[in-house]
Amino acid sequence: MGSYAVGGLLSVGFSKTDRYLLVVSSQGRGIVDLESGKKVARDETAYEGLSDNSMYCQGIGPIGDELVALSTYSGGGLPQSNSAGESLELVAPEWPEYDLVLCQNYKSALVPGNQTFCTKIYKEHVRAFGFSWCGNYIVSACGSDFDLWQRVEKL
After folding, report:
1. At a CB cut-off of 8 Å and minimum separation 6, what does 88 contact?
2. Could you say which of 25, 47, 125, 149 would form a disulfide bridge with 8 (CB–CB 3.0 to 4.6 Å)?
3. Is the pLDDT reported for residue 124 higher than 90?
4. What confidence score (pLDDT) does residue 154 get?
5. Strand partners, 20
6. Contact assessment for residue 14 and residue 139, using Cβ atoms and an 8 Å cutoff
7. What's the confidence (pLDDT) of residue 62?
């Protein structure tokens, strides 16, 4: 869907109840509409609504009443797989850079012979990643930007 520059990015999290991504940075919080890919809300109060362990943050704008689970450098709570048999794996063959790998058909990039079912989709110092709760979107983030992908049904 696109790449988005965000200075001081800390964490990201998908709404469980609607089509939004919450982005938390040292500059505040922002909301991206997953259907349009556009930023729809912004709050410049850094760290407001962020839990002590940085694993949850109060939403803003259209998800202002939701406490959003986050994925961040210290762990997180986003799904690593979806109901279509796809999964995300973080591997580091060229550490300290990481590769984020998308695998299909319930395969793993770490199992010999399964690599043909897996594709590297992101290479960076990965800070946060995961599927949306509906399983149709993927986010991957480093300290300065994030990328979004949307699942497209095969015909």
Report:
1. 80, 81, 100, 101, 102, 103, 129, 130, 131, 138
2. 25
3. no
4. 62
5. 33
6. yes
7. 96
Identity of the residue numbered 20: Y
DSSP state of 83: T
| Tokens found for residue 47 | 């760290």
Report how far residue 151's alpha carbon sits from residue 138's, in angstroms, rounded to the nearest whole number: 8
Which pair of structure tokens corresponds to residue 136?
A: 């149709």
Q: Say if residues 39 and 30 touch (Cβ distance below 8 Å).
A: yes
Closest to 49 measured CA to CA, from 67, 26, 30:
67
98 is written with which tokens? 């990481």
Element (H, E) at 4: strand 2-5
Report d(CA 134, CA 90) in Å as an integer.
Answer: 21
CA 6, CA 128: separation in Å to the nearest integer? Answer: 13
| Distance from C-alpha of 133 to C-alpha of 54, rounded to nearest angstrom | 19
β-pair partners for 148: 2, 139
Strands lying side by side in the sheet with 71-72: 39-43, 28-33, 20-25, 9-14, 71-72, 75-76
